[in-house]
Amino acid sequence: MRLSVAQALSDLRALSADLQKPRDVIALGPEGEAHYEMLCRGEASASAPELTELREALRRAATAPSLDPSGALVATAVLLADALEREAADENWHAIWEAIVPVARKAPGPVRAAVMNGFLQAMYADLLPDDIEPANADCITTPADTLVDRLVPLAKRLTPNERRSIAAADYGTDVDRHLNALETVLSRSDCRIVCGEYYYPLEVIELSGHSPDAVGFNGATALSLIHWLPTDSDGGLASSRWHHNARAYLALPDPWRQPILDAFRHRYETSEDFVTIAADQLGAPPTIPWHRG
How far is CA 214 from the centre of its chain? Predict the structure, then answer.
């Protein structure tokens, strides 16, 4: 499974666990709610006859947002996760799409993006009609500029020792030149790397951000993300870093953890390069945790 699909499934399921069950599901009683919980966790048998009534209740909820707006979003999330899991195109997605888009666009960023990225991955999997396609802005939790503003103060926290260690990351070659270039980048209000700096100091920044054991790893990661975020593509570097270092990012202390995780989420939401590396090379990495904010 592509990492982007796994991420979409993880987000849709987290959303459904976080928000209230749709009223149409609650009306089914304890047994229906139990089946709902199993479906949300991806544990229900796809062909189980008891899911027929549940799916009908979810369709009613998804297409009647005026009665229960939050429930409509949750119902849509559950149906999308179910479709992606089963690789099934058996819903009346036109009716759901037309009903849910106005509600989703008014929802908080994490909720909107989770639902819309579910639609996007279903579109990529040819599970939707051809005329259903989320807009790019629908799929982004947090704008890149906001994320950069959160990362810049972290990058500027790099200590003199960490800066020199980063500058020496290319096997100790041209340390002073890398250090001077790094100091120039860090002196800027936005810490942006400009044309002409793609080796000095970007090379050592990328090298230091490759290994969680490197001195200055956190700051180098922040600088790399500041560089990647405004671009349409990072050549797969964000995907590669997440595969190699996801558990290190998840274990980061405050204040580093959330801004860095949010930045990787943005790469998932905006870059088709964020895909799975072959499992026989690295195995499946953890997904990026979803939270309502």
Answer: 25
